[in-house]
């Protein structure tokens, strides 16, 4: 499959020092064609303290995501454990018990960055109260990540809004 990359896009990347030569461009385009690695976020509001060790004991292989303490890359899932069906193929994460119980959330690692950036940028200013307006909240992964972060105080509020009706039902 041949990709046609707009010349002005490549020039923009080169002008900003993102791509210095053709091999870098080739590597960049190859990386754009790869599917993102599957990742999960442990929902600290619902997950038991020992969920991570339970998943690992039952055969899940996970690598931590460096920028999110609750984020994990899924290397492989167990087969036939209490968290997956006893068949040759692992059950999709969305059908596992921890996901159905809201203990883990299937969320791309890059989708965890905005909340982590907000946490870092506002660490000292959100001690007592906070009001967060999530303007594109569906399906809810960043919103639930925000909720887990802001929960310790009663004086914090999240308003989750989704302007696209076709996506809004996911917030209920």
Strand tally: 6
Structural class estimated from helices and strands: alpha+beta
What is the CA-CA span between the terminal residues?
41 Å
What topology, given as strand order, has the largest sheet? Answer: 2-3-1-4
State the shape. Answer: globular
How confident is the prediction overall: mean pLDDT?
Answer: 82
Largest sheet: 4 strands, antiparallel
Binned, the helix content reads: 25-40%
Structural topology:
Elements (H helix, E strand, L loop, with lengths): L6 H9 L6 H12 L5 E4 L8 H7 L3 E5 L2 E9 L20 H4 L3 E3 L6 H10 L7 E5 L6 H10 L5 E5 L4 H4 L4
Parallel strand pairs: 5-6
Antiparallel strand pairs: 1-3, 1-4, 2-3
Describe this protein's structure:
The protein is of the alpha+beta class. It is 33% helix and 18% strand. It has 7 helices and 6 strands. It has helices at 7-15, 22-33, 51-57, 97-100, 113-122, 141-150, 165-168; strands spanning 39-42, 61-65, 68-76, 104-106, 130-134, 156-160. Strand 2 and strand 3 form a beta hairpin. The longest helix is centred in the N-terminal third of the chain and has 12 residues, at 22-33. The protein is globular. The chain starts with 6 loop residues before the first helix and ends with a helix.
């Amino acid at each position: 499959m041949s990709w046609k990359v707009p010349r002005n896009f490549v020039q923009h990347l080169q002008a900003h020092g993102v791509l210095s030569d053709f091999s870098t461009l080739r590597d960049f385009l190859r990386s754009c064609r790869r599917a993102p690695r599957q990742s999960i976020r442990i929902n600290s509001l619902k997950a038991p303290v020992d969920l991570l060790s339970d998943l690992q004991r039952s055969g899940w292989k996970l690598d931590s995501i460096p920028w999110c303490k609750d984020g994990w890359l899924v290397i492989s899932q167990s087969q036939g454990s209490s968290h997956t069906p006893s068949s040759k193929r692992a059950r999709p994460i969305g059908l596992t018990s921890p996901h159905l119980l809201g203990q883990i959330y299937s969320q791309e690692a890059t989708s965890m960055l905005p909340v982590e950036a907000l946490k870092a940028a506002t660490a000292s200013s959100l001690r007592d109260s906070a009001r967060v307006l999530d303007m594109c909240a569906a399906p809810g992964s960043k919103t639930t990540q925000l909720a887990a972060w802001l929960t310790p105080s009663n004086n914090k509020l999240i308003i989750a809004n989704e302007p696209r009706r076709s996506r809004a039902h996911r917030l209920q």
